[in-house]
Amino acid sequence: MNYSELAPSYIRAIAPYQPGKPISELERELGVTDIVKLASNENPLGASPKAVAAARAALEEISLYPDGNGYAVKAALVARYGVTLDQLVLGNGSNDLLELAACAFLAVGDKAVYSDHAFAVYPLATQAVGATGISVAAKAYGHDLDAMRRAAVAQGAKLIFIANPNNPTGTFLAGDELLTFMRALPATILVVLDEAYNEYLPENCRYDSVSWLAEFPNLLISRTFSKAYGLASLRVGYALGNPQVIDMLNRVRQPFNVSSMAQAAAVAALEDAEFVRRTFDLNLRGMAQLSEGLSKLGLDYIPSFGNFISFHIVNAAWIYRRLLELGVIVRPIGNYGMKDYLRVSIGLESQNCKFLSALKQILGETA
Ligand SMILES: *Cc1c(COP(=O)(O)O)cnc(C)c1O
């Protein structure tokens, strides 16, 4: 027999998540060395040395289970955001929180709304619990909030996923657009606002979504330590929301979903504002470097508010493979309905240079 048939049909229908190619895999497959990976929106500065030291110190106690309540991390977040402990839940990366939201609030046959070209985990988390995803057409590659609200209401959806900024498009919704959306939405529909790239927003784009929690008990905000804080491998994120919603997420999460190394590093990372500042500044310069470089090569890109940029290019799949041969890993995003685009993460100046010159060389070959 085919054992996949033991799985429910909605599990069999899942298209697996396609991660960025690891450096070691490219080395193994093509024998390429001196590789630059700009494929997973990782922090090119690494992590705060204070966070690394804290994680290392926590190694001494790996025989003990971590604090299942994540008290130290939550206490640091309480101090920062002025929320209460019961408004916080930690996740094994914010990916975990997206899945927990789906698991806690969606049953088989329920509906969740998200946008075309939005983060791939929303359909995955929805399908994994047997719920039905409704993907709403994008507006200039970004979320069309009015259309999403109308679809959710018309189809009786229970949950809406929103990424701001969105990955892989980098598009951004201004705070007042989100507020208008929340005010028009029935309070019976839960909104998961995924702010994985929040720390990269320029000053004039920042908005205080945490303060909205008082007005919207149906709002759940997720954030991560994987991007600006540089702790992608440790897997730690958090969600802020109404205590009743948080309570439901806590019931379905694993009791020890965040390791003690991750918790220790997260606390230290939160205290290292200087590291986040350097990350932000480097990203700003790198974004300018890559945007100008792409323009010079005659390529169109989608203006991005994250730590990555998606650009239009013919034969994207072939260009991706040629870039691999030249030691540069970017991300094809055909599975996001964008087969003529590639996404490149902002790296160090020298890494961005290497990417741009490899791309220039390839475009020269095809001309
Ligand atoms: C990277 C990313 C995440 C989550 O990453 P974690 O490492 O699981 O925290 C969530 N949402 C978006 C839009 C992302 O790009």
Describe the structure.
The structure is a single chain. The protein is α/β, with parallel strands linked by helices and 367 residues long. The longest helix has 24 residues, at 273-296. It folds into two domains: 3-46 and 274-366, Aspartate Aminotransferase, domain 1 (Alpha-Beta Complex); 50-271, Aspartate Aminotransferase, domain 2. The chain is built from 14 helices and 13 strands. The protein is globular and about 60 Å long. Pathway: Amino-acid biosynthesis; L-histidine biosynthesis; L-histidine from 5-phospho-alpha-D-ribose 1-diphosphate: step 7/9.
In short, what is this structure?
The chain is of the alpha/beta class and 367 residues long. The protein has helices at residues 9-12, 23-30, 49-58, 71-81, 93-105, 121-128, 145-154, 175-184, 209-212, 243-252, 260-271, 273-296, 316-325, 349-366, and strands spanning 36-37, 88-91, 111-115, 132-136, 159-163, 190-194, 219-224, 237-241, 301-302, 308-312, 328-329, 331-332, 341-345. The strands form 3 sheets. The protein has a 7-stranded mixed β-sheet, with helices on both faces. It has a 4-stranded antiparallel β-sheet with strand order 9-10-13-12, with helices on one face. A two-stranded parallel ribbon has the order 1-11.
